[in-house]
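The records we work with from here on pair a chain with its fold. Each token is a code from a learned vocabulary of local backbone shapes. A record is reproduced here so that you can trace the correspondence yourselves:

_____
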Amino acid sequence: MLRGVLRYPPPILQYLILPIEGLAVPTFFVISAFLFFSKLRKQSNQLQSIAHYEKRLLVLYGFWTIVWMPIILMQRTEYRQGSVFHGICLIVKDFFLKDTFDASWFFVALLIGVPIIYGLGKVFKEWGVWIVPFGVTQIIYHPSDMPVCIQNGITWFTENINPNLGLSFLAGLLWISIGYILSNNKVVDTIKRIPNKIAWLSVLAFFLLEGYIPYVGQILVVIMLFISAYTWNLPSNDILYKRLRVYSIIFYCVHDSFKKIPKYLFSSMHNGPLLYVITLIVCWLSSEFIIRMKDVRGFQWLRYAY
């Protein structure tokens, strides 16, 4: 019975957590896109800024891919089948088009999605940038309703690129486009005039109505959640926020791959509160180690971890 408590949260918590958990991925993409495109709009050489952004993501993604390569090779048996050259080709393909370590599809989605949305912004102008991504989203979640030619394209994509459309770079396009629109100066000015309490009440209202407004309900929740965070008057503490930024990056890159290690070493270890606490402690210790050691001679390479 104790094992069950340590493995699974109570049903009422699962009921409450799962809908909130579903907001995490969209919110991540919206905020990431907003922050990037807000800076990009102020740059005179936007293509150079995009190239710099892509380079930074590639370095960060590449660093953690190397760190977690033993876990990756343990999980991905296809990399170890056939010749070494064949395995390297598969790794390179997945690195740029799918993922490598667990949860790293976010990197791929941003690497591919940000330039695509930037290009769509030039073609469709400011307010039409969401049209193509919204259509792609419908294809992802309603593939059987699509024409045969599109279904054939989906089949090819799932067989050659990523078997899970919902965890592919295609799934990030709509949310990145929303972040792009929200970064518009006129939209930002409008957001600033929205009282924070009204924004939070809107989040709650749309969250409760989400089930009655398929998919569009989630979009409204995520937008209002972003507005609530943006208009939240937090105390000034640059040092704390910079540290939390580093924590967020390292925690993200460490958590999902690390938790495979206890599972591998201890057959009785499963997802649950116990593994969650262990993973949280390891993520914090890893973050502190990297932050404190990055300027020490011989450890400067740790700065690429975030």
